[in-house]
Amino acid sequence: MRSLPIAARWRGQIHLDVDDDATPVAVRDEATYDALIARLPTHRIQQRQPAPLSSDPLRARPPIDFGRAMLIVITRGDTMDPPTLAAVIDAGDHVLVRYAATPPPPAARCYGIGGYAAAQVPRVDGPLVARPARTIVDAADVPAAVGDLVTLRGPLHATRRPTLLGVDVDDGGAAAGLVEATGWLEREDVRQDELDAQLAAHGQFAHRGAGTFYRLVAVEGGQLARPRAAY
């Protein structure tokens, strides 16, 4: 299995049949690309009218060489909020799509309009298999999920090092109460002898001592994942 590099990303709203499930699609030719573009709203989805033209850059139909590349698109119909497309993996006999589609906010739903996320990756053939992020609500389940795409849900402990279920996150000014954050779960083991060696070489610096620590890394970069209000 190998993770395919993502050359570009897009997110926005899309016209859908009523469908609450996250659905992946591979765009590997011009005709399928045209059909995708035709489903993107021409105007911003809002109550106040007249609405301005959509600012979705995918509507400009950026050129894609489908001999070498493809688009992986995942949609959801239970909210206009786009899902999170975290990774596209060549698994040999299929293409594995890792994504997160957390519960939507308690707002009025616009039927027939959903959210989409798209990623341009190198072309590989084969059917798509979608696998959602694992949702964790108990800190005891964190160690077994190291290396996986997860959504952590719980109270944010906004201390000097903000944590969610004991995992380092970026607080990002998140409100108090129930929050969630999605990303790749990593583990760091700090041994006392390694810490002593660093102290001897560099002098005193802020540290948490020896132990095992966990961090949640954001999908689109090496920064810590930022929590948001959970519903």
Structure in words:
- The chain is mainly β and 231 residues long.
- The chain folds into two domains: 2-132, no CATH class; 134-229, no CATH class.
- Helices cover 9% and strands 39% of the residues.
- The protein contains two helices and 15 strands.
- A five-stranded mixed β-barrel has the order 10-11-12-14-13. The protein has a four-stranded mixed β-sheet with strand order 1-5-6-8, with no helix packed on it.
- The longest helix is centred in the last third of the chain and has 11 residues, at 192-202.
- The protein is globular, with a radius of gyration of 20 Å.
- The relative contact order is 0.17.
- The model has no long low-confidence stretch (mean pLDDT 89).
Provide the fold topology:
Elements lengths: L1 E2 L4 E8 L7 E5 L2 H9 L30 E8 L7 E7 L4 E6 L12 E10 L5 E5 L1 E3 L12 E9 L5 E2 L2 E2 L9 E13 L1 H11 L8 E7 L10 E2 L2
Parallel strand pairs: 6-8, 9-10, 12-14
Antiparallel strand pairs: 1-5, 2-7, 3-4, 4-7, 5-6, 10-11, 10-13, 11-12, 13-14, 13-15
User: Which percent bin holds the helix content?
Assistant: under 10%
Give the SSE order as H and E letters.
Answer: EEEHEEEEEEEEEEHEE
What percentage of amino acids are in beta strands? 35-45%
Instruction: Decide which structural class fits the backbone.
Output: mainly beta
N-C termini distance: 34 Å
Q: Tell me the count of domains.
A: 2
What is the C-alpha radius of gyration, as a whole number of Å?
Answer: 20 Å
Overall pLDDT level: 89
Q: What count of helical segments does DSSP give? A: 2
Main sheet overview: 5 strands, mixed, barrel
- Poorly predicted spans: none
Number of strands: 15
Shape type = globular
Within the largest sheet, what's the order of strands? 10-11-12-14-13
